[in-house]
Design brief:
The chain is of the alpha+beta class. 57% of the residues lie in helices and 14% in strands. It has 12 helices and 9 strands. It has a 7-stranded mixed β-sheet, with helices on both faces. A two-stranded antiparallel sheet has the order 1-2. Strand 7 and strand 8 form a beta hairpin. Helix 7 crosses helix 9 and helix 7 packs antiparallel against helix 11. The N terminus and C terminus are likely disordered.
């Protein structure tokens, strides 16, 4: 069974490591550990798993306190908990770990260019997302003309497993017809949100958290408030079609950009999911802000 070092032994080992710090391999060792910690924090900082991480840190602090105060019963109890903590963490953070491994696999394969040429995997990925963007744009345009309400959440880095679990699994290729069927007013799943992961409809009828921002316009209904709330709690891109006005809107990082044309929507989705090699997230945010300013004029 995996056994963990006591608090004193752990500090002793850290002290020995610091004193023996005298080679290039030690520098690389520290950089690697720092990179792993940074990547882990970046992975969970915008998910609900960050709350679990905070709870774990608090539990560790309490363990250190009871150990320093020589509280033998409490120390024994915590030692039992922490003796299997790695297994517990793997179980708790299994969705985040799986998502991280998938991201590493995709980036290592799809982002590798040889002499500036994109490989077949990257080209195939772009074709899939281009098909998705065409289907979503067409579906939103049709629903806008017919005044059919819709709410679509495009998962990015933040894992939306808990949101997906509130809906009905679909796992379907995206098409304008499929989206139209999901949000058809008499369909059983039309009131909820459709979550799109890796250019596929993962689930429909999902429940999103409503924004708690009191400055939101009173003109906005539940769909728009849910879109803003979801964008506040994740880095997802949310597309809304208003049932009352037919207006197309996009929510991202707490900002709602309303009254977008089909061309605007296509450009926003393209910038978000088919980025040029020299683009970054800041450019995408500037694009949204530009649309927002244009709307105000």
């Amino acid at each position: 069974m995996l056994q963990f070092l006591s608090i004193s032994e752990a500090f002793s080992e850290i002290g020995k490591a610091i004193l023996s710090f005298n080679s290039i391999s030690d520098v690389l060792d520290v950089l690697l550990v720092a990179f792993v910690i940074y990547s882990a924090i970046k992975l969970i900082r915008e998910t609900r798993a960050i709350q679990l991480a905070k709870g774990f840190v608090l539990l560790l602090a309490v363990y250190a306190l009871v150990y320093l105060l020589n509280m033998q019963v409490s120390t024994y109890m915590f030692s039992i908990i922490f003796s299997n903590i790695l297994l517990v963490l793997v179980v708790i953070f299994s969705p985040e770990i799986r998502h991280a491994l998938e991201s590493v696999g995709r980036s290592s394969v799809s982002n590798f260019n040889f002499f500036g040429f994109k490989n077949s995997e990257e080209l195939r990925r772009q074709e899939v997302y281009q098909d998705m963007i065409r289907a979503v744009t067409k579906a939103c345009t049709d629903m806008s003309d017919k005044r059919i309400g819709a709410l679509m959440v495009f998962e990015k880095d933040t894992i939306l497993g808990e949101i997906i679990n509130t809906g009905t699994p679909v796992d379907a290729v995206i098409s304008a017809e499929m989206i139209g069927n999901i949000f058809y007013p008499k369909a059983p799943l039309h009131d909820g949100a459709a979550v799109i992961r890796n250019a596929r409809i993962c689930a429909a009828g999902c429940i999103l958290p409503l924004t708690k921002n009191t400055d939101v316009s009173s003109e906005l209904g539940t769909r728009h408030r849910a879109a803003i709330g979801m964008s506040e709690q994740s880095d997802a891109l949310i597309v809304v079609v208003s049932e009352e006005t037919g207006a197309i809107s996009v929510a991202y990082k707490g900002e709602l950009n309303r009254n977008l044309s089909s061309g605007d929507l296509r450009e926003i989705l393209t910038e978000s999911f088919i980025k040029p090699d020299n683009s970054d997230d800041n450019r995408f945010i500037k694009l949204l802000k530009g649309r927002h300013k244009h709307e105000k004029k």
